[in-house]
Amino acid sequence: MDITPVSERRKTRQIMVGRVPVGGAAPITVQSMTTTKTSDVEGTLQQIYALAAAGADIVRCTCNERAAAEGLAQIVPRSPVPIIADIHHQYKMALAALDAGVHCLRLNPGNIRKPEHIKAVAEACGEKGVPIRIGVNGGSLHPDLYEKYGGTVTADAMVESAQDEMAYFDEVGFEDIKISVKASSVPLMIEAYRKLSDVTDHPLHLGVTEAGPPPNGLIKSTAGIGTLLAEGIGDTIRYSLTADPVQEARAGRTLLESMGLRERKNVDLIACPSCGRAEIDVYDIANRALEAFGEREIPLQVAVMGCVVNGPGEARDADLGIAAGNKRGHLFVKGQNVAVVPEDEMVDALVEWAEFMHEHGADAALARADTVKATREAERDRNMLLEKQGDDVNDAEARVELIRKH
After folding, report:
1. Mean pLDDT of the chain
2. CATH code where residue 383 lies
3. Which residue of 41, 72, 131, 166 pairs with 15 in a disulfide if CB–CB is 3.0 to 4.6 A?
4. Is the same domain home to 34 and 175?
């Protein structure tokens, strides 16, 4: 049975967050945010891969200090999904994040208040082709708006905050934006988004801020986001839970699938972005794997990684994956190396192991493998690649030097 939303989706402009379209006729996307320190590059990347495997199309990371910006310079080229930098009080961190190569910025008008700073960030984004989310939050409105609206947060105050920010952007000719007007009160959040959708055609990012832990947080978020989606309002969503962010991504994906707004998947295939370490054509292998899996009803998360140096660690939360190195494919199950196959057999091996795992489980797959030998071979190829390519194949150090100038 076909499932359709209650109302026709509101027509909005479309922006690009990296390679992911937001707004227009593009599918509604799922976002989440890392909880690691962004300066912890490996820990943050592991969480990003876990979020991508759980259904996140876009991931936001905080950029609150220089170390975080320097971390982003290393994270962005290795992330499987576009990265948004979350900026609060320091506009220079926005400029540093742009130098790090992020795909979008999130600015809170209640925190960065000087018009010259807002315009400087917008101009820099315009030069780099990077969009901005105007992230209005009911808990951090400009004091003048509090006073104007009687010392309380209202839907009108939140919409006016967004419009004030847009006006600054208009002054420098910047229009590549999406907007959110989040509140912890579900009725207030719904009213604010309804009013905002009446006055702008920019894409809208939906969310109930500080929704709290499950199950209450899930219920509040679903009530607010689901109501608006049913009315045709919204282009990208985020559940803001006091929980592992993987739960946010899964909840968002489930909501969209339940409402018929995203297609249900069988194999959930994720792939690295093919950075300077890639030993294979990642896009070709990923596309061939998708074609090979076809309509098989195998509910596993499968990762295709371009190199054995970082792949198994970054995608350890995937059920099954393969990483290239030295003309060979290194298979891993739940982050543990299990087998080595010739490069031209990588796709066939993925399908065979996925079918085995679906029938017998991950423990059985690990039990049949010579994990000691597979780990030894992977480590050998990893060391060979590091010796051949060095430690900085993505030129992160050059970006770090730019960041340190701010």
Report:
1. 92
2. 3.30.413.10
3. 131
4. yes
Highest mean pLDDT among 136-145, 163-172, 185-194, 311-320: 185-194
Do 243 and 309 sit in the same domain of this protein? Answer: no
> Which residue, 190, 195, 129, is CA-closest to 156?
195
Domain that holds residue 306: 268-389
For residues 277 and 254, state if they share a domain: no
Alpha-carbon dihedral angle through residues 257, 261, 267, 268, given to the nearest 10 degrees: -100
Which string of b and e fits 301-333 if b means at least 16 CB within 10 Å?
A: bbbbbbbbbbbbbbbbbbbbbbbbbbebbbbbb
Mark whether 280 and 364 lie in a shared domain: yes
Pair 92, 184 in one domain: yes
Provide long-range contacts, Cβ within 8 A and 24+ apart, for 91-94. 91/117, 91/118, 91/120, 91/121, 92/406, 93/63, 93/64, 93/65, 93/66, 93/68, 93/69, 93/406, 94/63, 94/121, 94/124
Residues 352 and 310 in one domain: yes
Q: Indicate which CATH number applies to the domain containing 125.
A: 3.20.20.20
| Other CB atoms within 10 Å distance of the CB of residue 280 | 21
Let me know the angle formed at the C-alpha of 229 by 226 and 230, rounded to the nearest 5 degrees: 85
Q: Which residue has the higher pLDDT, 390 or 76?
A: 76
pLDDT the model gives residue 265: 62
Nearest to 207, CA basis, from 199, 193, 195: 193
Spatial separation of the C-alpha atoms in residues 97 and 401, rounded to whole Å: 12
Digit-coded pLDDT (tens) for 238-268? 999 999 999 999 999 989 988 989 876 678 8
Identify the helix (H) or strand (E) that includes residue 225: helix 216-230
Cα–Cα distance for residue pair 344/360, rounded to 1 Å: 26
Per the structure, the count of domains in the chain is: 2
Quick check: helix, strand or coil at residue 30? strand
Compute the distance between CA of residue 90 and CA of residue 131 in angstroms, rounded to an integer: 18
| Residue range 14-27, pLDDT digits in tens | 999 999 999 999 99
> Do residues 218 and 278 both lie within one domain?
no
Within a domain: 66:
yes
| Pairing relationship of beta strands 336-342 and 328-333 according to DSSP bridges | antiparallel
Whether the Cβ atoms of residue 378 and residue 337 lie closer than 8 Å to each other:
yes
Read off the tokens for 167.
Answer: 């006006």
Same domain, 273 and 247: no
> What DSSP state is assigned to residue 220?
H
With vertex at residue 288, the alpha carbon angle to CA 286 and CA 294, rounded to the nearest 5 degrees, is: 105
DSSP 8-state assignment for residue 25: T
Assigned domain for 336 exists: yes
